[in-house]
C-alpha cells in the first residue's frame, strides 16, 4: 500500500501505545494528539469542502459576484461590530481584524505534532542508554505468556540479561561517569518536563492566537454555564462579522461593506472551550506526575519503598535481607535506571511477573555478594567478585586454638580420651602455621607408665593430618 512516508510513520507511532510510557504520557502523546488531529481534519473538511462563510450581498450582485464575495471575505481579514453599534465611517477604526479562523486547522495540526514530539525524542534517545527499557519490557512480556517451568526459565534468563546490563553501573566492571546509572532517569524526567511545558505553553500560544483574552474567557464562560446563564456570543468567536472590499467598474472604484455569518465560529467556540479545560487538566496531571517521578527516582528512600512494595516478601532470601543489604541492592545495584525499568515492567506486564523478576534479581545479587542467608553479615559489605576475596580476607574470623584434642593435629595416646590432658607448646598461637606443625606437643605421662621421651608425633600421624587440613 502506497502512502506518504513521513505521514505513515507519524501515524504508526501515534497510534501504537508505547511500552515505555505511563498513563499520563499516554494522555499527552496519544490521546491529545489523536484529539487534535481529529479536530484538525474535521475543521479542514468543513472549510475546504463545505461552506465556511455566507455573506449577504447587494441585490445587483449576480451568481459570479456572490461567489467572489464569499471567497474574498473568507481569505481576507474581517472585523466584528456589535449589532447595537453603528459601523464607523473611518476605515482605520473599524475594530480589530480577525483572520485566525482560516488557520485553525493548521494550528490544531501543529499542536498535535507538538504533543507527540516529546515522545518521539524519548523513543529516539532511550535506545542509546545502557538500560534500553523497551527491549527488556518486550522480552519480559513474552515470558508472561508462558507457564510453568518454561516461564520460570525465561524470567531467569531475562534477569541474568538485566544483571549483565547493571554491571555497567559498577566502576569495578566498566568505566563509569558521574551519571552512570542515571542517564535514562534524567532523560525520562526531562521528557516529562517537556510535556508540562508543552501543555502550559500551548495555553499561552492559543491566548495569542485568538486575540489575548483566551486565558480569562474559558474560566468566565464556565462560571456562566454553572450559574445557568445563557451561552452568549463571545467577542473571540463572533458569528456575524463585517467585510469590506472594493470593486473596479470601468475607471471607477466602488467600495462595498457586506455582512457575513461564519458558522465555523460556533464550532470553534465549543472546540476551544473544550481545549481550554483539557489543557489545564492535562497540565495539572502532568505536574503531579512529574513531581511523583522526581521523588520516586531521585530520592533513595522512595526508590527503596517502590521496590519493597513490589517484591515477593514470602521468599526466604528477601525476608532475611537486612536494611543495609536492601539499600545496597536498590541504590548500588539497580540504581535509578534499574528502578525505572522495573516501574515500566510493573505497569505494562503486571505485578506477578514483577515479583518473579525482582526475586531472581535479588538472588543474583546475593550470589554476587558471595554469601547465603546464614552467612556472616560482615561478608556482605562488598558485593562484586573483585572485592569479595579482599573482603573475605579482611573479615575472616581469627581462630587461635590453645589446645587440640584427639581429633586435632596429633593422634591420641592409647587410652586417652580427654583432650584437656595435652597442651600445645605454642599456647598463644603466635607462631606461623608452617613452624607450629614442626613443634612437639608436650604431654604428660600416662598414669602408671614411665614418662617417655618427647618425639614428633606428626611424623607418625596419618596422612590426613597435614597443614592443609589445618
Protein described:
By secondary structure, the chain is mainly alpha-helical. The protein has 2 domains: 5-81 and 96-130 and 188-282, Up-down Bundle (de novo design (two linked rop proteins)), CATH 1.20.1440; 138-176 and 299-392, no CATH class. The chain is 54% helix and 6% strand. The chain contains 15 helices and 5 strands. It has helices spanning 5-15, 23-49, 63-75, 104-125, 133-144, 148-166, 183-210, 214-226, 264-298, 300-309, 316-319, 323-348, 351-369, 385-395, 433-436; strands at 53-56, 78-79, 97-98, 240-249, 252-262. The strands form 2 sheets. The chain has a 3-stranded antiparallel sheet. The longest helix has 35 residues, at 264-298. The chain is elongated. The model is unreliable at 371-470 (pLDDT under 50). Keywords: Cell junction, Cell membrane, Gap junction, Ion channel, Ion transport, Membrane, Transmembrane, Transmembrane helix, Transport. This is Innexin. Residues 397-470 are annotated as: Disordered.
Amino acid at each position: 500500500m502506497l502512502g506518504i512516508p513521513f505521514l505513515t510513520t507519524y501515524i504508526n507511532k501515534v497510534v501504537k501505545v508505547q511500552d515505555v510510557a505511563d498513563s499520563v504520557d499516554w494522555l499527552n502523546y496519544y490521546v491529545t494528539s489523536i484529539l487534535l488531529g481529529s479536530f484538525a481534519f474535521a475543521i479542514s473538511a468543513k472549510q475546504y469542502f463545505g461552506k465556511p462563510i455566507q455573506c449577504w450581498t447587494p441585490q445587483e450582485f449576480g451568481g459570479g459576484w456572490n461567489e467572489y464575495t464569499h471567497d474574498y471575505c473568507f481569505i481576507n481579514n474581517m472585523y466584528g461590530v456589535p449589532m447595537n453599534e453603528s459601523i464607523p465611517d473611518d476605515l482605520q477604526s473599524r475594530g480589530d481584524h480577525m483572520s485566525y479562523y482560516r488557520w485553525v486547522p493548521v494550528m490544531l495540526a501543529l499542536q498535535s505534532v507538538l504533543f507527540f514530539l516529546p515522545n518521539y525524542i524519548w523513543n529516539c534517545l532511550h535506545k542509546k542508554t545502557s538500560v534500553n527499557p523497551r527491549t527488556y519490557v518486550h522480552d519480559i512480556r513474552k515470558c508472561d505468556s508462558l507457564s510453568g517451568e518454561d516461564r520460570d526459565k525465561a524470567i531467569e534468563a531475562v534477569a541474568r540479561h538485566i544483571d549483565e546490563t547493571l554491571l555497567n553501573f559498577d566502576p569495578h566492571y566498566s568505566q563509569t561517569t558521574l551519571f552512570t546509572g542515571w542517564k535514562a532517569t534524567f532523560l525520562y524526567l526531562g521528557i516529562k518536563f517537556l510535556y508540562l511545558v508543552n501543555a502550559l505553553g500551548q495555553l499561552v500560544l492559543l491566548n495569542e492566537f485568538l486575540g489575548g483574552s483566551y486565558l480569562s474567557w474559558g474560566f468566565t464562560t464556565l462560571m456562566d454555564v454553572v450559574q445557568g446563564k445563557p451561552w452568549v456570543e463571545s467577542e473571540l468567536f463572533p458569528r456575524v462579522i463585517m467585510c469590506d472590499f472594493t470593486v473596479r467598474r470601468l475607471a471607477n472604484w466602488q467600495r462595498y461593506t457586506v455582512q457575513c455569518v461564519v458558522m465555523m465560529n460556533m464550532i470553534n467556540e465549543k472546540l476551544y472551550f473544550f481545549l481550554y479545560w483539557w489543557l489545564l487538566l492535562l497540565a495539572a496531571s502532568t505536574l503531579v506526575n512529574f513531581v511523583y517521578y522526581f521523588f520516586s527516582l531521585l530520592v533513595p528512600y522512595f526508590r527503596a519503598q517502590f521496590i519493597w512494595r513490589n517484591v515477593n516478601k514470602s521468599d526466604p532470601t528477601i525476608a532475611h535481607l537486612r536494611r543495609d543489604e536492601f539499600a545496597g541492592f536498590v541504590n548500588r545495584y539497580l540504581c535509578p535506571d534499574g528502578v525505572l525499568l522495573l516501574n515500566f515492567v510493573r505497569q505494562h506486564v503486571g505485578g506477578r511477573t514483577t515479583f518473579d523478576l525482582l526475586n531472581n534479581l535479588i538472588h543474583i545479587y546475593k550470589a554476587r555478594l558471595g554469601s547465603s542467608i546464614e552467612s556472616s553479615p560482615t561478608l556482605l559489605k562488598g558485593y562484586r567478585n573483585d572485592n569479595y576475596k579482599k573482603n573475605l580476607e579482611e573479615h575472616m574470623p581469627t581462630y587461635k586454638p590453645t589446645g587440640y584434642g584427639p581429633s586435632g593435629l596429633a593422634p591420641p595416646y592409647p587410652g586417652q580420651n580427654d583432650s584437656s590432658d595435652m597442651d600445645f607448646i605454642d599456647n598463644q598461637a603466635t607462631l606461623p602455621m608452617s613452624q607450629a606443625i614442626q613443634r612437639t606437643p608436650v604431654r604428660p605421662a600416662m598414669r602408671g607408665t614411665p614418662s617417655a621421651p618427647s618425639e614428633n608425633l606428626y611424623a607418625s600421624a596419618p596422612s590426613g593430618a597435614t597443614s592443609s587440613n589445618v
